[in-house]
Fold this sequence. Notes:
The complex is a heterodimer of chains A (about 290) and B (about 290).
Chain A: H1 9-12, H2 17-49, H3 54-61, H4 64-97, H5 103-115, H6 118-129, H7 136-141, H8 150-176, H9 179-186, H10 191-220, H11 223-229, H12 239-248, H13 252-292
Helix pairs in contact in A: 2-13, 3-13, 4-8, 4-10, 5-8, 6-8, 6-11, 8-10, 8-11, 9-10, 10-13, 12-13
Chain B: H1 9-15, H2 28-54, H3 59-66, H4 69-102, H5 108-114, H6 117-120, H7 123-134, H8 141-144, H9 155-180, H10 183-191, H11 196-225, H12 228-234, H13 244-253, H14 257-292
Amino acid sequence: MSRGRTIPSSMLLRPTTTQRAGRAALILLALLFLTGFLILPVVAVFSQALSQGWAIYRDSIVQEDVLSALRLTCLVAAIAVPLNVLFGIAASWAITRFEFPGKSLMITMIDIPLSVSPVVAGMMYVEVFGLHGWLGPWLMEHNLHVIFAVPGIVLATVFVTCPFVARELIPFMQAQGSDEEIAAAVLGANGWNLFWRVTLPNIKWALLYGTILAASRSIGEFGAVSVVSGHIRGKTTTLPLEVEMLYNEYNFTAAFATASLLTLAAIVTLTIKKIVEGSTGVARNIEEQEGES
Amino acid sequence: MPVKLAINPRKSARRWSFVTKSSPLPGFRLSFAFTAIYMTIIVFIPLTAIVLHGARGGFGAFLHTIVAPRVLASYRVTLGSAAAAALLSAVFGMLLAWVLARYSFPGKSIVDAVVDLPFALPTAVAGISLTALYAEHGWIGRYLEPHGIHVAFTPLGIVMAMSFVGFPFVVRSVQPVLEDLDPAMEEAAASLGASSWQRFTRIIAPVSFPALLTGSALAFARAAGEYGSVIFIAGNMPMKTEITALLIVTKLEEYDYTGAAAIASAMLALSFAIMLLVNVLQWWFQKREGQRA
């Protein structure tokens, strides 16, 4: 088609005044919804936490129970997240680089924790490790505690967070293909070198992204942990459980002060996520440009 | 020096004859075994335990438990609120996805990041914060209560909490589809004289519908299993505002493990049904994508 006959799209889709008004109205509506529905709850947390002044806020946070909950939350995340990073790498390697029967079953299994209610998730471990569970009597004999103890909390957290890294990596590695890795393998790289020199540099942003999601969820998990924890103050309460207990004791300021720590963690998560998304976007653009040239 | 091939075809083909397509890449055994064992321990065995325990009392007892009046009432509350929340999420999720995909405005990247807030904010924090907002003297509640609109401690509050956790699923499902939509189609429609409303109903709506449905189904699934954000705002009155997840916890606290396992099995069945539905939707979606391409 000759250039003269082409109608520039900007003319066709150039907004009229009514359309521009409609556009502004939709943006305004979206912003209003977002403010009222998402931002207001966050502001409310801080406002409630600071409602009795900064000193009381600080005192509520440095209480021994809150600090020990903070320590436990960090401990649980420090165990669950690396485990799930390992799992995510192994699962995505097996699924995207090899063909084997039962592959789709494996992918479905990885998705299960996302669709199971957290309460049911916690309860599953009570069924296996609890006093009336399959391993309960044996554990009792050997004086091992899983349910109402830290191992149960870790297990429940591992369950709810295990899909995050795998689900980020699988589509990413699928799209990337294995040409570079096959080249490295054919040239004699051993598995270790191949992973550190070829695979990891390629997947690092997707891996980081999945890790952030897993970490954020493992810090904030409530339902599953609540079922297996037993709510023993100073021993088996994580930060979200501490929030619940303080709230149910009508200690609202302390509950919101503790909640504000978790809210800060959420804000940090979102910020890092945005930065990583920016980085992957940059990486993708560079790849596209290289592909074109 | 001749290049030594690192692949040993005999080794990979014979020992793992079930690997249908032999690959030169290393690490299949390790990654497959690790993934399979991890999934078995973390997901498969606990899931089996809960279903088997639910059935332990026999089918009659199982049925009796899951259709008891209080349990049936909890299904009504949970599913009804989750459906309302999914609908609300669909409307506002579509709005947000549209605004984010189509318009540019200052602060857009912040808005985009804030949409993920419900994923990052621990559910217990969302729960107490929403309760504080919608309670009689809360920032929002104080304007609603005089008009006779009670949100906190009513089913309406449950819907609000469930919408909070559910709506990002809709945005994140629909947004990429709207972003990928080829502007040429709309330009063609516009050049043939289609109004913007016609372009929306004839082009955009049909293309984004499967994604909207998928997102809403995910939001529904999340809402139906939600625990942390709901229990604070629900008031938890048996027969009226008691959700199924809470009923499971109540049964556990009463040491009625078989009853809890039976209800949990019913919830699992629902989760799997939704998972199946989402997979079918995605399959349909991909088929349509294939036809368009």
